[in-house]
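Structure first, sequence second, as always.
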């Protein structure tokens, strides 16, 4: 159904190390016609990955720009027409500028000043640019914004931040093996292309992906659970998130949204960075049943312990052995939790599989501590 897009995803994953989530988000944004925000330090590949939009979709116009505090509207929306200005008409020449773009990448988007902000908000939300007071329909499908930092309260950028439905933190490569592979990689990997017409067809198919009443009820429960904790994403954000769920299902080759797709809501439903961890916890607990939520939480915690232990062994600091022993204790505690849950619910084979894998990893850490 979407083998073409899956091929592109695979090729992008081969080219960009440790960026599977961001690549999936980029393709989901394309399918759902939604906007995407990448936040993270410089040098993490946000710009390079985002700029792939123009090269992937043939027949499209992609606009790219880096904003600074001194950027002017002319840089995004075009210069004023001198001929019209002589007649008192305040009209811009938008040819090949942002209002005519199918896709856009705006780096350091939170540097947008008040002279740019209002036009940018209308363009992102309504796909309309007002030129001399007259509305011009924009073909804009997806805008990707990036920033090195989050907005601060009082900057007047809350509305701009809210316009981006998908929000992802982009960090440096986490695993040593992937980092070394990136350093060694000197190949120039090609990326397959897709025509604008083909993308439109994929978008139309995405719109037809089914959402069952069960999923709608789970989304309603997530909303209530978030409200109970004082996290109140707008009804508009919930409504728009349905297009993301459909796009995620379609990209994975399915015609119906399933519970696992709901995990992407963790990149949508929080309002401030402080709410992000609790939002993720609530979504995972509500989206999955008790056992699935337990497995999801425990597996993630155990994975972090393993990664931290590997880093400790590589650093070989004077306190490394003590740190490894502490990590081993934390890992054993989690293992006991899984063991007890498996005894209580022996009918769930995934608990047994998790227990077996954790035991193998713990034996390796134990061996490393002894031989350190």
């Amino acid at each position: 159904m979407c083998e073409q897009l899956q091929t592109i995803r695979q090729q992008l994953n081969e080219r960009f190390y440790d960026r599977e989530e961001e690549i999936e988000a980029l393709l989901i944004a394309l399918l759902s016609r939604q906007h995407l925000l990448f936040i993270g330090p410089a040098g993490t590949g946000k710009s390079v990955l985002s700029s792939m939009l123009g090269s992937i979709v043939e027949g499209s116009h992609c606009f790219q720009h880096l904003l600074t505090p001194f950027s002017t509207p002319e840089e995004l929306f075009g210069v004023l027409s001198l001929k019209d200005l002589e007649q008192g008409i305040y009209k811009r020449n938008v040819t090949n500028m942002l209002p005519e773009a199918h896709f856009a990448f705006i780096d350091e988007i939170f540097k947008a000043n008040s002279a740019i902000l209002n036009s940018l908000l209308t363009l992102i939300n309504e796909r309309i640019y007002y030129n001399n007071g007259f509305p011009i329909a924009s073909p804009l499908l997806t805008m990707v914004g990036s920033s090195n930092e989050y907005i601060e309260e009082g900057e007047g950028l809350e509305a701009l931040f809210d316009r981006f439905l998908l929000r992802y933190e982009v960090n440096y490569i986490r695993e040593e093996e992937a980092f070394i592979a990136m350093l060694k990689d000197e190949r120039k990997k090609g990326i397959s292309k897709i025509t604008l017409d083909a993308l439109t067809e994929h978008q139309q198919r995405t719109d037809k992906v089914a959402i069952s009443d069960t999923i709608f009820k789970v989304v309603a429960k997530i909303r209530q659970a978030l409200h109970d904790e004082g996290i109140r994403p707008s009804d508009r954000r919930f409504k728009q998130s349905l297009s993301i769920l459909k796009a995620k299902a379609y990209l994975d080759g399915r015609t119906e949204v399933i519970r696992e797709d709901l995990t992407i809501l963790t990149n949508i439903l929080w309002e401030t960075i402080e709410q992000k961890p609790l939002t993720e916890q609530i979504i995972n607990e509500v989206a999955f049943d008790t056992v699935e939520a337990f497995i999801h939480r425990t597996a993630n915690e155990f994975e972090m312990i393993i990664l931290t232990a590997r880093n400790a062994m590589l650093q070989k600091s004077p306190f490394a052995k003590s740190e490894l022993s502490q990590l081993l204790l934390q890992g054993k505690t989690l293992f006991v939790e899984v063991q007890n849950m498996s005894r209580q619910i022996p009918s769930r084979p995934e608990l047994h599989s998790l227990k077996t894998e954790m035991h193998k990893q713990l034996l390796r850490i134990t061996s490393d501590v002894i031989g350190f």
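Margin note: Residues 209-284 form one domain.
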